[in-house]
Amino acid sequence: QVQLVESGGGMVQAGGSLRLSCAASGRTIKTYVMGWFRQAPGKEREFVAVIRWGGDSTFYADSVKGRFTISRDNAKNTVYLQMNSLKPEDTGVYYCASGIPGRTWLQYYRGQGADFGSWGQGTPVTVSS
């Protein structure tokens, strides 16, 4: 089981940027697909982005495409989410998650939380208008 701890959240004005980090421990993440999800107040958790094992392929929710970039440094056992051009609707708690082994890469395009086995505690992001 991999343990995940997110950091980097905070308050920012619309148009600003934040970089979230997800530090993993317990196991190396190089064999895991890694993803980011978020949950806005009063709403269900939603998929944000996912990155393949070697970082050679990524997939994003339409709502963040072109503004957010997911990346990973397997040597540091860390995943990142660079968020630019932030909007008030990006407000929420952001969660890092590790994929369940055995899934194919295409399955992760579903953006379903059920495809991820370990979750961090989340880091809050607030974007003011």
Q: Would you summarize the structure shown here?
A:
This protein has strands at 3-7, 10-13, 18-25, 34-39, 45-51, 58-60, 68-73, 78-83, 92-99, 116-119, 123-128. With 129 residues, the chain is mainly β.
Topology, please?
Blueprint: E1 3-7, E2 10-13, E3 18-25, E4 34-39, E5 45-51, E6 58-60, E7 68-73, E8 78-83, E9 92-99, E10 116-119, E11 123-128
Parallel strand pairs: 2-11
Antiparallel strand pairs: 1-3, 3-8, 4-5, 4-9, 5-6, 7-8, 9-10, 9-11
Describe the model:
With 129 residues, this protein is mainly β. Helices cover 0% and strands 49% of the residues. A hairpin with a 5-residue loop joins strand 4 and strand 5 (45-51). The model has no long low-confidence stretch (mean pLDDT 97).
For the sheet with most strands, the description reads:
7 strands, mixed
Proportion in β-strands: over 45%
Average pLDDT over all residues: 97
Name the helicity range.
under 10%
Using DSSP, what is the number of strands? 11
Rg of Cα set: 13 Å
Termini separation comes to: 39 Å
Number of contiguous helices = 0
Secondary-structure element order, as H and E?
Answer: EEEEEEEEEEE
General shape: globular
Task: State the main characteristics.
single chain; 129 residues; mainly beta; 7-stranded mixed sheet; 4-stranded antiparallel sheet
